[in-house]
Amino acid sequence: MIVLGLDPSLSCTGWGVVRAEGSRIAHIANGQVKTDAKAPMAQRLDQLHRAVRQVIADYRPDRAACEEVFVNKNPQSTLKLAQARGCVLAACGADGLPVQELAARLVKKAVVGTGGADKTQVQAMLKVLLPGASIAGADAGDALAVAIAAAHLKAA
Question: What's the domain of life for this entry (predicted)?
Fold first, then answer.
């Protein structure tokens, strides 16, 4: 089974693709979609939508997983995150791809063993779980963690 993990953000959405065979996980690809903060919102969302659709076309995942929205202290940031998340979910929906939504704490628990893990611990565990994988950046790493968590949770 091929799983696409998504870590949505308006400024930089991470994506990661893994192959799951039972409890074994293998890295396929990962990347980040960065948008120009000076561009109009509609243009940024369109860029994000098209990029995720292209990832789906390139890697043909069987399913996707996306991190749930968390509430920031800044309501404007939360709204932008929700718009980006809606955009990536719509991209999956346009291709008929089922999407599993996971809380950040659940992703951390599935990958590291504790829901309170920090980003450093998640990144270190990715090196153990995906040896030799070149990770495009922190957001791509987070997306790979989402994909791994979804694969493990489906296998359980």
Answer: Bacteria
